[in-house]
Amino acid sequence: MGLRKFLDDIEPLFHKNGKYAALFPLYEALDTALYKVNYTTKSTAHVRDGVDLKRMMIMVMLFVLPAFFFGMWNLGYQANTAIASGAGVMPSDWHGWLIGLFSSNNPESLWDNFWYGAVFFLPIYIVTFVVGVFWEILFASIRGHEVNEGFFVTSILFALICPPSLPLWAVALGISFGIVFGKEVFGGTGKNFLNPALTGRAFLYFAYPASMSGDAVWTAVDGFSGATALSHAFSTGLVDGKLGDLTWMQAFLGLQQGSVGEVSTLLIVLGGIVLMYMGIVQWRIVAGVMAGLVATSLLFNVVGSDTNPMFALPWYWHFVVGGLAFGTIFMATDPVSASMTNVGKLWFGALVGVMAVLIRVINPAFPEGIMLAILFANIFAPTIDYFVVQRNIKRRMARG
After folding, report:
1. For the chain, percent of residues with pLDDT exceeding 70
2. If we measure between CA atoms, which residue out of 147, 177, 167, 149 comes closest to residue 211?
3. Most buried of 39, 138, 192, 222 (most Cβ within 10 A)?
4. Cross-referenced PANTHER family, in alphabetical order (predicted)?
5. Is the separation of the CB atoms in 352 and 377 below 8 Å?
6. Which of 87, 154, 82, 89 is nearest to 125 (CA)?
7. Predicted local confidence at residue 369, as pLDDT
8. Where are the alpha helices (DSSP H) in 224-323?
9. Residue 280 CB-half CA count within 13 A
């Protein structure tokens, strides 16, 4: 009750003509994050539901946490394994100093691996959150709007798809571009047609490709360069059922190089199943992606190639390497930038699945196709919905 009374007492300071009126969006965001709103819709028509946008975003964040924590452990495990084998050395910057302060480099130690991963990932997330909140509050204050809760999910998703060795200045630049040019210039949440997190990552990918791709950015140690699963798929393909030394089960569990959020397909899928059951993640989009993925992969398997081993990669390998699973569950299903109609969601998802495999297999310049596939589908989502609606109108008119 003490906190509730304190917030009520200071609320007039944030209203119009109050001392801190310009900061009302910040106050409102804190108040509604801690307590339910104390007002209801008065006019018709409206839907009465206890699950508002903020609670939906909290659910998404909650069910991405297992992949979040496992990914931090795996980041440390991959780094400590590389150090133990002599393939790399401890970072010589502040990361190395902070890691050595509280742990060693034993890949068999749960704490050593988790702390190593936390030292690299948490600063990325903190910078993403702080810079993103700054832009959200700035635009909300200028427009007189409330701070939208969707950013909390955007921030964590953006951080989870960044390479662990990405410089913090690049993190700030990427999330700034994603928020400002991917969302705010179009009017804010609900009016953007591109996924803001992917927009920021795409900007960094094309502006600073050396920091966003290759074989040296996914394992956070100095002097390391090891081929990722997708690199092996391009160069040698499957050999004795493995991509390099990686088995399918290891890839499915998440024991592979990659960004923190994308490595464990198992935890991504489990979180996705719960969110689909709750109706937060749209199952039609996920089903469409899987249909497009399977159909396109099987087609390439049948066509074959003597020079490109990626043609022979089965669909179930495509799904567990790179960011395809994470993109399918948490990115393609963005309720704002995806298709809105039920039939449109299926076509939208299918387009994502087809384009992801096409980019991976046909264009070796982009070894990870899911990011570009989702952004490409985002552009066509309104067109897909338009044709679906027009088809329904024509069918109804034909029935008289």
Report:
1. 90
2. 167
3. 192
4. ELECTRON TRANSPORT COMPLEX PROTEIN RNFD (PTHR30578), NA(+)-TRANSLOCATING NADH-QUINONE REDUCTASE SUBUNIT B (PTHR30578:SF1)
5. yes
6. 154
7. 85
8. 229-235, 248-253, 265-278, 283-303, 315-320
9. 24
CA distance 375 to 332: 9
Beta strands in the chain (DSSP E): none
Please, is 275 exposed, middle or buried when counting C-beta atoms within 10 Å of its C-beta (0-12, 13-18, 19+)? buried
Distance CA 215, CA 336 (A): 34
pLDDT of residue 246: 94
320-344 average pLDDT score: 93
Is 293 a residue whose pLDDT tops 90? yes
Q: How many CB atoms lie within 10 A of CB 235?
A: 13
Q: What is the separation, in whole angstroms, between the first and last Cα of the chain?
A: 60
Phi and psi of 76, rounded to 5°?
A: -65, -40
Q: Which residues of 29-40 are buried (b: 16+ CB within 10 A; e: fewer)?
A: bebbeeeeeeee
Q: Where does the pLDDT of residue 283 fall: very low under 50, low under 70, confident under 90, or very high at 90 and above?
A: very high
Contact indicator for 258, 117 with CB cutoff of 8 Å: no
CA gap 333, 340 in Å, rounded: 10
pLDDT tens for 125-153 read 999 999 998 998 888 878 777 777 777 88
Contact of 381 with 339, CB cutoff 8 Å:
yes
Residue closest to 157 by CA, chosen among 333, 359, 361, 314: 333
d(CA 275, CA 95): 35
Residue 323 to residue 325: CA distance in whole angstroms: 6
Distance CA 242, CA 240 (A): 6
42-77 burial code (b ≥16 CB/10 A, e <16): eeeeeeeeeeeebebbbbbeebbeebbbbbbbbbbb
Q: Give counts: helices (H), strands (E), the chain.
A: 17, 0
- Domain-by-domain residue ranges, the chain? 2-34, 53-226, 277-400
Task: Name the most confidently modeled range: 176-190, 225-239, 344-358.
Answer: 344-358
Instruction: Report, as an integer, the average pLDDT of 64-75.
Output: 95
What's the predicted TM-score (pTM) here? Answer: 0.88
Handedness of CA 92, 87, 103, 169 (dihedral sign): positive
Q: Residue 42: is its pLDDT beyond 80?
A: no
* pLDDT at residue 106 is higher than 70: yes
